[in-house]
Amino acid sequence: xxxxxxxxxxxxxxxxxxxxxxxxxxxxxxxxxxxxxxxxxxxxxxxxxxxxxxxxxxxxxxxxxxxxxxxxxxxxxxxxxxxxxxxxxxxxxxxxxxxxxxxxxxxxxxxxxxxxxxxxxxxxxxxxxxxxxxxxxxxxxxxxxxxxxxxxxxxxxxxxxxxxxxxxxxxxxxxxxxxxxxxxxxxxxxxxxxxxxxxxxxxxxxxxxxxxxxxxx
Amino acid sequence: xxxxxxxxxxxxxxxxxxxxxxxxxxxxxxxxxxxxxxxxxxxxxxxxxxxxxxxxxxxxxxxxxxxxxxxxxxxxxxxxxxxxxxxxxxxxxxxxxxxxxxxxxxxxxxxx
Lengths: 217, 112
Description:
A: Dna-directed Rna Polymerases I, Ii, And Iii 27 Kd Polypeptide, Chain: A, domain 1, five-stranded mixed sheet, 14 strands, B: four-stranded mixed sheet, 4 strands, 35% helix, 21% strand
């Protein structure tokens, strides 16, 4: 870690103290915080500002002491890789963003936290009879299998304004995907996002349109 | 880059953050012309309670967004930034600046 990340734990500590739950927070180091949340057990969390968090980066953080139960990306610009989610599951820790941490603090077993959007997507797909299986391959990106369509790489978004940059960034961070599915009920792509989608070979669908597509014989 | 916290209070200071953004915007404008920088969202109301600092950058061409992000790789790790990039055309389509109550940081108003 460089000094660039020194702000993260301190900033999170302030945020937690200012939260309506008025957490008592002790700064253990420039990256680690101890959070008291009675009547539940105290927890240690680790804040990171790495550009990407994959298994390698998470492993390095896991080796630091004290061991944290939640590894939080303090900036939305951090790319969270599937390898980090897999390792986190194996190690019984959780990773996520600041909003995830705030929600996870309500749980006794923080490592069992599942992001709400992930839960929504996976429950939706589990209940769809045409989807034979799915596999998460990154943050909000899945291989979805149906008998009729075979494998589709599907990137999910939850954006009121699905812009050209969001699609371009997703393509750069997540690689190729066939479908860009926007979960936001009132969300719509800009005209230039539609052009970008065509250029990167992806089709933009709404959540309901995605299920209609999965019904295709 | 300047530190963004008061060393004792650990409170983020909006004036210092704005100055840091302004300096970065000036620096980037030497490489990419025609960018406008704005602050919006909860950080304008109470920066210490905000989940992140929402920054909008408007630019001319769709293809410029990856170049902008590339230049800002370090900057976005020095603040809890949420970066929104819109082309001028998208900004007009969405009326983002008006509907989100964005505060322009760069170019400063007195430069026009």
